[in-house]
Design a protein that fits this description.
With 92 residues, this protein is mainly alpha-helical. It is built from three helices and no strands. Helix 1 packs across helix 3. The longest helix is centred in the first third of the chain and has 15 residues.
Length: 92
């Protein structure tokens, strides 16, 4: 049974928390943080273990838990801020 639906604000909070876990750059994490300021596709032993791939999976898993993993991620999501991507995944 899925959890209650996430609000956009709750999703942004989770995304900020997840970004903090990968933040070895010392970036201040806010809703305005662009994903490519923290994540990379080449920082793991292979593409499936990069911070970009793992973060994407964490967010998708959270959305799936709440039965909300239906939105298509923009091709350029790494250039989006937390706020911009959250607005696509859970429109306000």
């Amino acid at each position: 049974m899925p959890y209650p639906p996430l609000t956009n604000a709750q999703l942004r909070s989770k995304m900020n928390k997840y970004l903090t876990q990968f933040n070895d750059e010392g970036v201040t994490i806010t809703d305005q943080t662009k994903h490519n300021e923290v994540l990379a596709s080449d920082d793991g032993p292979n593409a499936q273990m990069s911070s970009q791939f793992v973060y994407n999976g964490m967010v998708r898993w959270k959305l799936t838990q709440h039965d909300q993993d239906t939105a298509r991620w923009p091709a350029n999501w790494m250039a989006n801020s937390v706020e911009e991507l959250a607005a696509v995944l859970i429109p306000t």
